[in-house]
Prior knowledge:
The structure is a single chain. By secondary structure, the chain is mainly beta. It has one domain: Immunoglobulin-like (Sandwich), CATH 2.60.40.10. The chain is 0% helix and 39% strand. The protein contains no helices and six strands. The strands form two sheets. It has a four-stranded antiparallel beta sheet with strand order 3-2-5-6, with no helix packed on it. Strands 1-4 form a two-stranded antiparallel sheet. The mean pLDDT is 95.
Amino acid sequence: MGKIRSKVVRWQPSETPDVRYRLYWATCGPVAHNLDYANVGTVTEVTLPDDIPSFPLIACKIVLGVSAIGPSGNESEITTITGDIDFTIPGAPGNLRVEDT
């Protein structure tokens, strides 16, 4: 198994008390409430891809978004950021050997 260099995503908490957060992602176009997401609870940072097992291990331009969800289940607008990520693992070298000199 290879090793992936993680990325930390942080955001300012909502001014509304007692909310939890949802992280969205999109590789084609903007994020929207009907796209891929993960509920992350009450934290204001996550480590990708470690904290989100369903996050895609790809290399591309990606849009990330975070929304706040209130106690009644109502959801805020999505705050977004676009950036390049690379969570792909390069192929390993081959044919390793030890030889006499």
